[in-house]
């Protein structure tokens, strides 16, 4: 145990997940089926989280990027560190964000600023040999952004608001603030035989509008249900998982829930995840849509721009309830 404490420093150990915490209730949305708009709205209200199947994105696009990510994370530590530390973009190891959060994870964070995006500040991606990594990234990010947009349009349809692109236009704009993240949770063999698990990525909500996650077939992701209990999300490498972010919670005046989630490290297997975060342009005002407000309904939040929210987020700790300071 002493050895474990030395190895993982201040990363928090959690109680082992209970066997019955494996949750079979994650809503599954079949995009090939009619009626998915209503099912999406229901999932956003109940969980702020759902799985998407029949999404039309070839498995090959995910597999190619996973292969490139594994190649990158297998490089010697000194090589990887040439693309770090993240400020906020670049390679990071154990340290998450600027305020002292840590987890059993290493990652690459990209700003999706120009489309197709550039890799300034990532030396490893500027090497000529990185052609296949760059092309896998571009291909994957375009597909994930398109999926985010389709899902956001179904949300508008399900909420019966117009135009249909009222949400999707916010992430599809030339100036949209999008982020992409590749995470690698290395196995932690020291955990074997111990009745506890290690925090890979601590609990938090995503500040943006929508997040699109895909992982390999290693378990680890957990979401908090409305009663605050944690459940483990069965992994599915062929599907995507969608999270509602804080900004969409505000735009729906609390109807859609920004889901709290976390990742636990695994004793035996590596987990690789890839997440697209769709955020609006910096100057975008984030407020409940008038069309959604019932008669006499008041906004739960004071007005703010995405730029203000982001600034506040980067001053916070990962687990903080960031919307708190914007509530009325
Ligand atoms: C959570 C969602 C995304 O991963 C992220 C994270 C960001 C970071 O890792 O740099 C933050 C975190 C996230 C919210 C609060 C701040 C910023 C770490 C942190 C402590 C890229 C994002 O946009 O916000």
SSE blueprint and pairings:
Layout: H1 2-8, E1 13-15, E2 28-30, H2 36-46, E3 49-53, H3 59-73, H4 77-81, E4 90-96, E5 101-112, H5 123-126, H6 131-159, H7 168-172, E6 178-185, E7 196-204, E8 210-215, E9 221-224, E10 230-232, E11 240-244, H8 246-251, E12 261-264, E13 271-278, E14 285-286, E15 304-305, H9 306-314
Parallel strand pairs: 2-3
Antiparallel strand pairs: 1-7, 3-11, 4-5, 5-6, 6-13, 7-12, 8-11, 8-13, 9-10, 9-12, 14-15
Bound molecules: gibberellin A4 (GA4).
Organism: Phoenix dactylifera
GO molecular function: gibberellin 2-beta-dioxygenase activity; metal ion binding
EC number: 1.14.11.13
Could you characterize what this model shows?
The chain has 328 residues and is α+β, with helices and mostly antiparallel strands. Helices cover 28% and strands 25% of the residues. The protein is built from 9 helices and 15 strands. The strands form 3 sheets. The chain has an 8-stranded mixed beta sheet. Strands 1-7-12-9-10 form a 5-stranded antiparallel beta sheet, with no helix packed on it. Helix 2 crosses helix 6 (131-159) and helix 3 (59-73) packs across helix 6 (131-159). The longest helix is centred in the middle third of the chain and has 29 residues, at 131-159. It is globular and about 60 Å long. The chain binds gibberellin A4 (GA4). Gibberellin A4 binds next to strand 5, strand 6 and helix 9.
């Amino acid at each position: 145990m002493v050895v474990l404490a030395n190895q993982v420093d201040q990363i928090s150990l959690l109680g082992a997940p209970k066997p019955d915490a494996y949750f079979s209730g994650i809503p599954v949305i079949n995009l090939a089926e009619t009626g998915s708009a209503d099912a999406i709205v229901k999932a956003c209200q109940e969980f702020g989280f759902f799985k998407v199947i029949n999404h039309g994105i070839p498995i090959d696009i995910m597999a190619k990027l996973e292969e490139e990510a594994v190649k990158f994370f297998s490089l010697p530590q000194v090589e990887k560190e040439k693309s770090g530390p993240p400020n906020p973009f670049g390679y990071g190891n154990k340290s998450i964000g600027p305020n002292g959060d840590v987890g059993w994870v290493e990652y690459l964070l990209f700003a999706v600023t120009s489309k197709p995006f550039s890799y300034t500040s990532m030396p490893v991606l500027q090497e000529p040999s990185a052609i296949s990594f760059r092309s896998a990234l571009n291909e994957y990010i375009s597909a994930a952004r398109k999926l985010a947009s389709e899902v956001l349009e179904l949300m508008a349809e399900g909420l019966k608001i117009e135009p249909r692109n009222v949400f999707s236009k916010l992430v599809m704009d030339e100036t949209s603030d999008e982020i992409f993240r590749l995470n690698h949770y290395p196995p932690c063999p020291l955990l074997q035989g111990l009745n506890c698990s290690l925090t890979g990525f601590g609990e938090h909500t995503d500040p943006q509008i929508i997040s699109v996650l895909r992982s390999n077939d290693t378990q680890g992701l957990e979401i908090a249900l409305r009663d605050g209990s944690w459940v483990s999300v069965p992994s599915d490498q062929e599907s995507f998982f969608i999270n509602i972010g804080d900004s969409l919670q505000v735009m729906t005046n609390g109807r859609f829930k920004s889901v709290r989630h976390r990742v636990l490290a695994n004793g035996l297997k590596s987990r690789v995840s890839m997440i697209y975060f769709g955020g609006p342009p910096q100057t975008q005002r984030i407020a409940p849509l008038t069309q959604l407000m019932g008669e006499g309904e008041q906004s739960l939040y004071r007005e703010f721009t995405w730029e203000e929210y982001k600034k506040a987020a980067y001053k916070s700790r990962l687990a903080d309830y960031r919307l708190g300071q914007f509530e009325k």
